[in-house]
Amino acid sequence: MAKHTCLMIGGGGMAANWIRIFTNDFSDRIEIVGLADVNTDVLKTQGDALGLSTSQRFIDFNEACASVKADFCGIAIPPKFHNPAAIAAMENGMPVICEKPIADTWGAAKAMVRTAQKTGLPCAIIQNYRYADNKQELIRIRDEGRLGGLQYVVGRYGCDFRRYTAWGEWRHNMDFGLLIEGSVHHLDMLRFLSGGDCEILIGFGWNPEWSSFKHYSSGFYLMRMDNGVHSSYEGNSSAAGMEYCWNHEYYRAEFEQGTVEIAGGNQIVIHRVGSEMEVYAAPPVRYEHHHHLFDEFLNWLEGGEPSDTRIEDNIKSFVLVIAAMETTVDGQPKQIADYLSDLDL
Ligand SMILES: NC(=O)c1ccc[n+]([C@@H]2O[C@H](COP(=O)([O-])OP(=O)(O)OC[C@H]3O[C@@H](n4cnc5c(N)ncnc54)[C@H](O)[C@@H]3O)[C@@H](O)[C@H]2O)c1
Fold first, then answer.
1. Which ligand 1 atom is nearest residue 17's CA?
2. Which CATH superfamily is domain 4-121 in?
3. CA-11 nearest atom, ligand 1
4. Does 287 have pLDDT greater than 80?
5. Predicted TM-score of the model (pTM)
6. CA of 305 to the centre of ligand 1 (A)
7. Ligand 1: which residues within 6 Å by Cβ?
8. Domains 4-121 and 130-285+318-339 share a fold
């Protein structure tokens, strides 16, 4: 199989992680042939390391999309630039794999869905936390009915970001940083673990006096899914005691015949009334996190199944962030179907 050429938009932060994975672990399948980053130091360092000529380095991603004819475009820059970068890439004929969240606004996200549909090009969104040993094992417990039916799932996220810039400066300055940058992972995970799409979402958000964020750092949200499973979410970027920070988020699934708890690592804990607690290591998955998503996306480009987190599906997770923002503002329950009604999904 020939290598897939890639135009990479973003070179530092998470994008540096992508480039490291591409060059270390996917060098037989991916070749970066263009790089765009507004930071000229990043552009030079990464461009030199990748052996790119000056004509393959760009400050402006629009120019990059118009000049580089790559087999796909990878996008790992802040959310407000996802829409213009992804649309420019698809309009120039390139499939896209893009970091979460889809975009920074509902309108921007829907425009990306429509561009993917209009061009017919693959567009996948990163939801790396789904692809961990313990999450996949919980899905098997559910799907194989090992503990009977599933009643509800609880998700908890708490990070001690009380120091300004602890979570990257721009996240402390933006509106709804918790929801747009953080909860987008957790609401997607609750959708994934519950096995249903959300029908109704309601909740609250707030900013404690001592928060290092200009906007809400914390919130509680409840969802009823279309398969009858309920879920609750606790998000706290001002955590001062118990932390359930990145890769250590806590999920508890209440089944008919037992309760399953997962958090960091690959441990599965099962509680049953009248029995000893059962603790075991979840069987390893072949590829974890971003590796899984890159492999799945390349397989899609090669004629395989579309990515599970393709934009037409992931919009059903991103809409939960938008609904959570709106219920936070007006205190009203949000019917998710109302948001999706003008999309052809
Ligand atoms: N999946 C995950 O676990 C995870 C973790 C962290 C970040 N992210 C996501 O990755 C994306 C980037 O976040 P980050 O923390 O790496 O951000 P960042 O601020 O570190 O920026 C990443 C790079 O993008 C460049 N950049 C910024 N604006 C640009 C523009 N307009 N054009 C070209 N380059 C530009 C920056 O110079 C930097 O090199 C976000 O969508 C974020 O949500 C995902």
1. 16
2. NAD(P)-binding Rossmann-like Domain (3.40.50.720)
3. 39
4. yes
5. 0.96
6. 28
7. 9-15, 36-39, 42, 61, 76-79, 81, 99-100, 126, 128, 168, 181
8. no
CA-to-CA dists, residue 117 to 70, 110, 320, 343, angstroms: 20, 11, 21, 10
pLDDT interval class at 280 (50, 70, 90):
very high
Domains of the chain: which residue ranges? 4-121, 130-285+318-339
Which DSSP symbol is given to 165? T
Q: Name the closest-CA residue to atom 3, ligand 1.
A: 128
Question: For a pLDDT cut of 90, what percent of the chain falls above it?
Answer: 99
| DSSP-assigned letters across all residues of 82-146 | HHHHHHHHHHTT--EEEPSSS-SSHHHHHHHHHHHHHHT--EEE--GGGSSHHHHHHHHHHHTTT
Q: Ligand 1, closest atom to CA 42? A: 39
How remote is the CA of residue 179 from the centroid of ligand 1, in Å? 16
CATH architecture of 130-285+318-339: 2-Layer Sandwich (3.30)
**3-state helix vs strand vs coil in the chain, percent to 5:** 40, 25, 35
The Cα–Cα gap between 188 and 240 comes to 25
> Model confidence over 61-77: pLDDT tens digits?
999 999 999 999 999 99
Residue range 82-111, pLDDT digits in tens: 999 999 999 999 999 999 999 999 999 999
SS3 34: strand
